[in-house]
Design goal:
15 helices, globular, methyltransferase
Length: 428
């Protein structure tokens, strides 16, 4: 239990795999030598917010249908424009103006029609000219070389004019310097853009350094229902890159963004700094802290970079009303540790608490079952049932699934395997 072993290889998030991004170039190397990228995610505010459409496509198909209708409408208007202006359509217009149709009109102008005209100019018409290359069956005989291979004519290369060009020197990848990081932090960013540092194609133990669709689903819930979270004290478990905590800070008062690993927490802190333009107008605050699910207490070591102070622990227990976790159940041992941590924290809270858990049901073919299964998801559901049936005389837990019918505020593919669960904890 203390030593968790992962039996899987490198994984890559569908967010980074499927969504094009204008800046998918490496920004720097992190402390452990992994390449770090910066991606920008645009928030669709009320004016351009798209509705969820069958939970299947990133744009719900509405934009595609609207563009198609506009193009077809322009095509219909263009096709009928001549008829509207001249009283007749394109074919009739030629006949009305010249007294003859297009073929006859050209024949009248040149004295002969197109075939006759070309025959008069070149001495032979098009059909006769091509007849030399046709075989006995009537088809065109392809040009072949002496070996019988197809001979493809190529265009001659054009020589570009010579001009002076600057010398290009290769850039050796190295860890970013402190001054470069500060310049990147000071870069102005639009009000509706979230900037996130992340890695790509990590081992399973480092998946928290990537952005996953479950974080987007929780962000959609927060952005579409801000009154539910306004002014609240929020705890996020397994925050990863911190995207959901950043979005939560646009409406909440205080967000405790927690995870494990010094390098991951440093990346999360960097993302909080990169998105101050989103949080400062609302007055929200994000505090990045260490919270290990395998430990039974919070780290209050004063020398720890991401340790808790006594005041923060008291504030967490006295004022927290919302707990969130985005796509953190992918290993059975970690899922057990998550629910033990959730149970322990809820029992220490003074106020009733609501927990929102997003998860993606990932389908895998297993040799053990010789069928498609979702073992991580099945274990997650089993833990939910155990929590709801728990009767310890201290806290009553209620579990329900939330239908994701709220608007989609970020561009991603909201597939039907994405689920959102709500766990309500009320002290007895």
């Amino acid at each position: 239990m203390d030593q968790i072993t992962f039996h899987y290889d490198t994984v890559l998030s569908d967010v980074h795999l499927l969504l094009p991004n204008s800046r998918h170039l490496m920004a720097r190397l992190n402390r452990v030598g992994q390449p770090v990228f910066i991606s920008r995610f645009r928030i669709l505010w009320d004016g351009t917010k798209q509705r969820t459409c069958d939970l299947g496509s990133p744009c719900g198909g509405e934009k595609l249908d609207r563009d198609t209708q506009e193009k077809s409408g322009r095509g219909d208007a263009r096709g009928s424009e001549t008829g509207a202006d001249g009283g007749v359509d394109r074919d009739e217009d030629g006949g009305a103006d010249g007294g003859v149709d297009r073929d006859e009109d050209r024949g009248a102008d040149g004295g002969v029609d197109r075939d006759e005209d070309r025959g008069a100019d070149g001495g032979v018409d098009r059909d006769q000219d091509r007849g030399a290359d046709r075989d006995e069956d009537g088809g065109v005989e392809p040009p072949l070389d002496e070996d019988g291979d197809l001979e493809v004519p190529r265009r001659p290369r054009q020589r570009l004019p010579e001009r002076d060009r600057d010398m290009v020197y290769p850039i050796i990848l190295s860890q970013a310097r402190r001054d470069e990081e500060e310049e990147d932090e000071e870069e102005e960013c639009p009000r509706d853009v979230i900037r996130i540092e992340h890695t790509m194609a990590t081992p399973l133990e480092d998946v928290g350094k990537q952005v996953w669709r479950g974080a987007f689903l929780l962000a959609d819930l927060i952005l579409s229902q801000p009154t539910t979270f306004r002014g609240a004290t929020v705890l996020e478990l397994g925050a990863g890159t911190g995207l959901t905590s950043v979005v939560m800070a646009t409406v909440a008062k205080t967000v405790y963004c927690t995870d494990v690993g010094e390098d991951l927490l440093s990346m999360c802190q960097k993302n909080v700094t990169l998105n101050r333009h989103l949080m400062e107008p609302a007055g929200g605050e994000v505090r990045v802290r260490l919270l290990d699910w395998l430990r039974h207490d919070l780290c209050t070591d004063a020398d720890a970079e991401f340790g808790w102070t006594e005041d923060e622990v008291a504030d967490l227990h006295d004022n927290t009303t919302i707990i969130i976790a985005a796509d953190v159940c992918y290993d059975d041992d970690l899922t057990d540790a998550l629910f033990r941590t959730l149970y322990r924290i809820c029992n220490n809270l003074r106020l009733p608490c609501t927990t929102y858990l997003s998860i993606e049901k990932r389908l895998n073919f297993t040799l053990r079952h010789m069928d498609i299964s979702c073992e991580a998801y099945d274990h997650f559901r089993h833990c939910l049932c155990e929590m709801q049936e728990l009767r310890d005389g201290r806290t009553c837990f209620t579990v329900e699934q939330v239908t994701p019918s709220f608007p989609q505020c970020l561009l991603y593919e909201r597939i039907e395997q994405l689920e959102l669960w709500k766990v309500t904890a009320v002290p007895v």
